[in-house]
Each structure stands twice: as structure tokens, then as C-alpha cells.
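Dear Dr. L.,

I hope this message finds you well. Following up on our conversation about the binding site, I have prepared a predicted three-dimensional model of the protein together with flavin-adenine dinucleotide. For your records, I am including the exact sequence and ligand specification that went into the calculation, followed by the C-alpha cells. Please feel free to forward this to your student if that is useful.
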Amino acid sequence: MSYITGVIERLRDLTKNIKEYEIILEDRVEPEPGQFAMLWIPRVGEIPLSFADAEDNIVKFIVARVGRVTGYMHERLMAGDRVFIRGPLGRGFTWAPSGRALLVAGGYGLAPLYFLAKNLRIAGCSVKALLGFKSDDDIFYREEFARLGEVEISVEHGSSGYHGTVLDLFRSVIRGRSYDVVYVCGKEELNLAVMRECLRAGLPVEASFERRIKCGAGICGSCSIEPLGLRVCRDGPILDGRMIAPMLEADED
Ligand SMILES: Cc1cc2nc3c(=O)[nH]c(=O)nc-3n(C[C@H](O)[C@H](O)[C@H](O)COP(=O)(O)OP(=O)(O)OC[C@H]3O[C@@H](n4cnc5c(N)ncnc54)[C@H](O)[C@@H]3O)c2cc1C
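The resulting structure of the complex is given below.
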């Protein structure tokens, strides 16, 4: 797959460590929510990023500062700079045309869920989002989600919303309420814990998984989820609870 050239149109600081990048691409792309792109900065490196939004030839990414490439993006990239993307790649979320969806996000995991929430609304679904952060200063995208449905925030240290982890908040919200489907994106522990509870309750669930992705084409094997042998770049990054079930059962043994 060839690269598409993009020009950074707008950058926004969402928190101290998270920025939003609005990029105008030379060609239109039509990603499904949950799909990702490989973003390449020549002489720096290439990383996978979930589409946080896409309309015509304008895409958005939400990027947490982690290491070499994301650090370069935060420190050096400016409006007008060029980047290159390969994509859309991978398998996106599936969704029912109507019904009640519960979205559970940890930190920048909200990126693909925001794009999903927009599409769910267009498809006539009602959306409730649980957004988990470490502290008050880490909160972002609350208003963006509020425009699409109900939102609850959790912080582990601070005074906003629910006090605790987003997993605790999920457990308190799911009790006694009926949702048709649950979508989760966060650290692997969060994904697996939410998936386990949904499978026990017989609730459809999908999660976005992360591994080190290199080729992005299902060839190199660097992003395999073992022992299942699923490749995040090709079979995922969105995986259905039923695909992950053997891993959850093995954990319980
Ligand atoms: C499908 C997919 C979608 C993603 N979407 C987003 C997104 O929307 N926004 C976002 O901010 N990030 C996203 N990520 C994560 C992002 O790709 C990594 O943070 C990025 O590759 C780090 O590159 P770096 O050069 O800055 O860090 P590096 O210098 O490569 O690494 C810094 C440290 O982080 C660790 N690390 C880096 N990447 C990963 C990983 N994938 N899993 C576990 N440990 C890792 C390294 O081991 C190292 O310790 C996504 C990852 C995947 C697989």
C-alpha cells in the first residue's frame, strides 16, 4: 500500500501529554471507526494511530507522548508540516444499526471510541461513554462526547466525576442497566476485565488492542497476541470478546 501525503492543518493541546492533530490528506480516505493508519515521519519513524475522526480528506489523530516518534511529534511538528500515512488498516468495530451502546475508554483510548460514537449516533444508536483518567488535569474530550450522548468521567486522583478507575465506574454502571453492546479501548488489563464481565453477562463486546506494529500487513508477526496467534494489524486491532475468550479462560485457571 502506498503512502498518502498529509499536511498538518491544526494542532491542539488537549492535556500536558496529549495533542490532537488535524491533517489534510491529498487523497480522500474512508476508514471505519477502529481502523488505524501507519503515520510515517521521514528520518524519525513510523507508528500506528487510530483514526479519531475522518471526513472527506480531513483526518484527526489524538497522540499521547510516549517515546521517540510521539516525542518528535509533540516537540517538533507544526501546522504546515508534511507527514505520510498508510491506511486505513486493520479491522474496525462492528455495530448494530440501533440500540444502546456503552463505550469504556482509558486515557487516549477514547480516540477510536469518539469516531465510533459519531458513527453510532448517525446510525441511530444511543451512546453512553465512560471516560477514565488519572487526574483532573488529564481530562479531555468531555464536551466532544457530551455532544453525542451521555458521558461520565472517572478520575483516580482528583475531584471530577466518579472517584476511582474507569473499570470500577463500568462495574457500577453496568449493574442493573441494559445495554446492547459494549466497546472498550484502554490498557490491556482494562480491555480484558471489561470483556470478561461482558462475556459472563452474555453481552456482545469488542475491544481495541495494542501491540508493537511494524509491517502493518500481517506478515512480520511482531503484533501477535499469544497464545491465540491473532495479529493485531490484520485480525484486529478490534477483536470480538468471543475471539479473546480462550485467553480469559486460561487466565482464570
Ligand atoms: C492499533 C494501534 C492504534 C494506536 N492508536 C493510538 C492513538 O490513537 N493514539 C496514541 O497516542 N497512541 C496510539 N497507539 C500507540 C502508539 O502507536 C505508540 O504509543 C507509539 O507507537 C509509540 O511510538 P514512539 O516512537 O513514540 O515510542 P517508542 O520510542 O517506540 O517507545 C517508547 C516506550 O513505549 C513502549 N511502547 C511503544 N509502543 C507500544 C505499544 N504499542 N505497546 C506497548 N508498548 C509500547 C516501548 O516499549 C517503549 O518502552 C496505537 C497503537 C496501536 C497498535
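In brief: The helical segments are 68-76, 110-122, 142-146, 166-174, 188-201, 241-252.

With kind regards,
A. P.
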